[in-house]
Structure formats: C-alpha cells, structure tokens
Amino acid sequence: MMTSADTNSVHQKPRHVAIKVLSNILLKKGSLSTQLARHQSSVAIEHAPLLKELCFGVCHQYPKLNSIGLHLLAHPFEEKDTDLYALLLLGFYQLKYMNTPDHAAINESVEACRYLDKEWATKLINAVLRRYQREESEIIDQLIKMPSVEFNHPKWLVKRFKKHWSEQFEKTIISGNSRPPMCIRVNEQQVSRETYIEKLQEEGIDCFEGPYSPTSLYLKKAVGVNQLPNFLDGEVSVQDEAAQLSAHILSPKNGDKILDACAAPGGKTGHLLEMSPFIELTAVELEPWRLEKIESNLERLSYQADLICADASDLSAWWDNNQFDKILLDVPCSATGVIRRNPDIKINRKPADIEELLVIQKAILNNVWKTLKPNGYMLYATCSLLPEENEQQIADFLETQKDAHEIPLNSLNETLKIEWGIEVSHGRQLFPNENGHDGFYYCLLKKKA
Ligand SMILES: C[S@@+](CC[C@H](N)C(=O)[O-])C[C@H]1O[C@@H](n2cnc3c(N)ncnc32)[C@H](O)[C@@H]1O
C-alpha cells in the first residue's frame, strides 16, 4: 500500500522498491536482473544506484543474512508476508554493510511495515533488528559452523565445491563473495586496444589489459556505459574476459557459416562478427524477449545476423538442412561461475535445477551436433563450475557420438596462449578470479570426416 508521500510523487522510496524486488525474487517470480530492470523506473534516477546496491547487497549476503533471520525469528514468516522478510533482510544489510546510521536503518524498517500496511509487525521488526544490532558478534559466533554463515554460499553448493575443487575452494568462495570487476571488449574493427586505453585515459578512466583475451580491458573503477568513449558507436562492449575467449577460440574467418546456438543477450554473437564481419551467422535463442536483446546489441555494433527464436534442440523448428562450419554452443547452465554477477543464484538455485539443466544441455548438444559439417568445429561452453555440466557432459557425449573428438582449444587460433584455468578430463575449467575473469568451461570438438 502506498503512503501519501509516495502518491504525491511518481517515484517511490528506494527501500520500498527494494522490498518489492527482493520479495519477488524470494517468491521465485523472476531473477534479480529482470526484477531490477522492471522496477528501476519506480525510483528517481538519482536513487537508481542505491536501489541496485540494496538489492544486489542483500542477494550477495543472503545465505548469511537468511541464517541470522531464521535464528532470530521464533517462527519464519508465512509466504504472504514475504515482503516483511525482505524488509528484515534489508534492515540487517543496512546495519551491517551500509553507512546508514543504526537508528535510521531501524526506524526506516519499522516505517516500512506501515507502508506495507502491516502495523502489527512493527514491534517484531524493531525487536529483531535491535537484537541484531546489540548482539551481532555473539549471533555470528553461534552460527559460524553453518556453511551458509561461514562461507556465505548455499550449503549444497559449498558441499559440491569442496568435493570437486578442494584446491580451488577458498579462491572460489572468496570470488563468489566479491564484487565483480568491470571488463570491456574492444572492437578491433574500429579501434586498437592501445588507442582505446588512451581514449579512456583522456576521460580519466584507469584501466589495465586482461592477460588472456587480447581484446579485454579491466576498468579500475566501474563506470556507466555512457561514460565509455564511443560506446554507442560500438567501439566497446561490456563483457567478461573469460566470455571473450569463446570467439578467440572459435576464430571465425570471413566466409565461415557459423551457428551461435544459445545466443542471447548476444555478447558472443557480437564478438564473432567483430572478429570477422563477413561470416554468415545464424543466432538461435529460445526466449523472444531475450532475442530482442541480441537485436539491440547488434544494432549498436552495426552488424547483422540471421536471428531465429526457437528451441535449438528442435531442429525441425529452425534448421534448413544446410550444415555449419563452426558452432558456438553456450548452453543454459547453473551459472555457478558467475555468482558474483548474479547473486540471486545464492537464493534460488537448487540441486534439482541442475538435473533439469543437464537434460536440456544433453538435448541441445546431441541435436545441434547434426547441424555441423564433417570436419567442422563445435565449441561447448558454460559459465558453470560443476563437472556434471562440463567435462562429464562431454564425456557422455563422446561416448555416444562416435564421429566427435576433442581437440586442443588453440587448434583454430595458434596465437592464443592457453594459460587460463586448469586442464580437466575434457576441456578446461576456469575459476572466477577476485579481480579478474569469471568462472567458465570450454571444450572444443571436431566432427570426423
Ligand atoms: C548462457 S546464455 C547465452 C549467453 C550468450 N551466448 C552471450 O554470450 O551473450 C544461454 C541462453 O540460452 C537460451 N536457451 C535456453 N534454452 C535454450 C534452447 N533450448 N534453445 C535455444 N536457446 C536456449 C537462454 O534463454 C539464454 O539466453
């Protein structure tokens, strides 16, 4: 329910909008990015960064804050009061991680109960937040043995990371809890990396070169895209360094007929065209609203591709029987390598999702393989850290597809130095680096003649 202060203005308070966004995430009504995009215009433009900080912050700290919330509440809130739980988590977040004075954080939380027309909850919210304020370190001491508190990741994921990646466990957890750096890709059709560094310096933006992708630059401090020189003209795009490796591995050459099979939002579609503008590129994407994102990305870069909205595994829906020279298969996955960019994964990703994703990945892999020419190449990619989605998925595939074999990741691009990640039974696994690239997986396959 809206207060008079809200109805007087078209804009609402960032805290009120954050409650809405977080409640919807908790109720599985959408992801952090889609919910933020939908509700961002509800706050004044100058409050957009605060709204983002509140929502990202709570998702980032959710495993820990949720354990504290459940510990301090005698009974969890009912589903219809998820907004109150979101409000409580926001209160914890402000008390612990923001500069808001404690009394303001508590008073505003209590006021927000009234905004939600839940006066009955004011005493409860006040009491729980005040107890947290007084006893935070004792509470943490009591809960620290819980993986959700010690590592600030869901228990099931902590277990899997420990099992599969004991050596990389600490680094993975630290990166998963960090804020990601802003990495951009320079469009070398328009400007060299060296020249773009100069352009950034002229604008007072400090950056450094990514060590692995020859087109990558990390900004020492994130900026809005409109502050990036000639962003609207397509000189640069925002893209993680590990993601940039896809196009460098596949190394498109003019004339190649290429398929980008799970393409939205089109980061890699654009990069393939930047590397070789005269390829014949088909991009397939299941979700119509996400296909529009590819369209607008390509429009900014002034490139074209054949865009098809379809399930890539249903060949009868989209394929004209003309085989491709190269295929990029960046399949839907658990996104466990990019938790820091999508921290709502800490809230809603569950082990059952992985089982579903494995089935989808397998169907896409097996069917799309038929669209590859003999002697053609397919790059299988995920932003997952779970071997079942990566090396095991490929092992199963190679078991059944006798015309497929794995080749080194620099087979198509000898200048590419493979110094990233670690070699696994099939392909390479990259782990997220605190101030560097995201977690990714790559395996390059060739079809026998
Ligand atoms: C990891 S994202 C791709 C990211 C993209 N390659 C990029 O670099 O911007 C996976 C995409 O696959 C899409 N997708 C999921 N299932 C699909 C299917 N059966 N066929 C085609 N696309 C699918 C998702 O909607 C999502 O946009």
UniProtKB/TrEMBL annotation:
Pfam families (alphabetical): Methyltr_RsmB-F, NusB, RsmF-B_ferredox
Regions annotated as coiled coil: none
Superkingdom, taxonomy of origin: Bacteria
Catalytic residues (positions): C383
GO biological process: methylation
Alphabetically ordered keywords of this record: Cytoplasm, Methyltransferase, RNA-binding, rRNA processing, S-adenosyl-L-methionine, Transferase
InterPro entries named among the record's database cross-references: MeTrfase_RsmB-F_NOP2_cat (IPR049560), MeTrfase_RsmB-F_NOP2_dom (IPR001678), NusB-like_sf (IPR035926), NusB_RsmB_TIM44 (IPR006027), RCMT (IPR023267), rRNA_ssu_MeTfrase_B (IPR004573), RsmB-like_ferredoxin (IPR054728), RsmB/NOL1/NOP2-like_CS (IPR018314)
PROSITE patterns named among the record's database cross-references: NOL1_NOP2_SUN (PS01153), SAM_MT_RSMB_NOP (PS51686)
Enzyme Commission code: 2.1.1.176
Bilayer-spanning residue ranges: none
GO terms assigned for molecular function: methyltransferase activity
Main localization, broad class: cytoplasm
List of residues binding S-adenosyl-L-methionine: C262, A263, A264, P265, G266, G267, K268, E285, D311, D330
Catalytic activity: cytidine(967) in 16S rRNA + S-adenosyl-L-methionine = 5-methylcytidine(967) in 16S rRNA + S-adenosyl-L-homocysteine + H(+)
Broad class of enzyme this protein falls into: transferase
Residue ranges of domain SAM-dependent MTase RsmB/NOP-type in the record: 172-448
Protein location: Cytoplasm
Family: Belongs to the class I-like SAM-binding methyltransferase superfamily. RsmB/NOP family.
Cited function: Specifically methylates the cytosine at position 967 (m5C967) of 16S rRNA.
Protein's UniProt name: 16S rRNA (cytosine(967)-C(5))-methyltransferase
Lineage: Bacteria, Pseudomonadati, Pseudomonadota, Gammaproteobacteria, Oceanospirillales
